Give the backbone structure.
Amino acid sequence: MSKKLALWPGIASVVLLLLCAPCIWAGDISVISTNDLKVKIDAKENFLLVNALSDIEFGMEHIPGSVNIPVGEIKTTDKLPVNKDTLIVFY
Amino acid sequence: MGYKNILLYAEGLAGWSKAGLPLVKDKDLPRPEIALLAPSKVQEQLSDVYLVDYRPEGIYKQGHITGSHNIPSHQFSRRYQEIPMNKKVILIDVVGNPAWTPMAWFLKSKGYNDVMMIKGGMNAWQKEGLPLEK
C-alpha cells in the first residue's frame, strides 16, 4: 500500500494540472489531512471527493461517499460540479 | 478547466485505513498472490508472452518495452478482452508492487490463469538498462 501511495505525487499532478493549471504555477495547491477530511464528511459539507484511480481499483476499495473519475477521463467526465467554485478533494 | 478550490488528500487510502476509518471494499474479488518476474527474465522470453503495459498512454509513449500493448488502467475493464487467454500475460506498471496488483487480480477473476507482473515495474526495467522503444 505504501508504494501505491508513493505514486500519488505523479497522479495528483496530472489531475491538478488539468483542473487548475494556474494554481499549480502559483503553488496554491493545498493538502488536506485525514482529520480535516473526516470533519468535512461528518459535517456533510458541500464538496466532491474524487478517487482518481481506475474503476477497477475504485471497485476494490474506496472512501465512502467518493466518486470515481480516473485521471484519463478527467477532461471528458460529466461528474465534475457545474459550479466551478465547488471544493474538490482528490485522493 | 477553471476549478479554483482543489485540495489533495495525499495520505489517500493508506492514511484513511491507518486512521481506522472505514473503506468500501469489494470482498468478492479474490486477491491471490501474483508471481513476479525479474526484468531480465522477461527480456529473455519477449517473443513467448503477451505484455500489457497499463500506464497512461502519454507515459507509455515516452518509452516502453518493445512489443508491449498499452491498455491504460482507466480503460482496462473495457478493453481487457484484447488480451489473448492462451498466452502467458505479463503486466507492466511503474513500480511492480506485489502487495497491490489490481489489474492482475481483475484478469484472474475473468479466467486468465497465467498472469504475472514485472518485478519492480518499469522503474526496475530502466534501472537495469534494458531497451526501450519510443
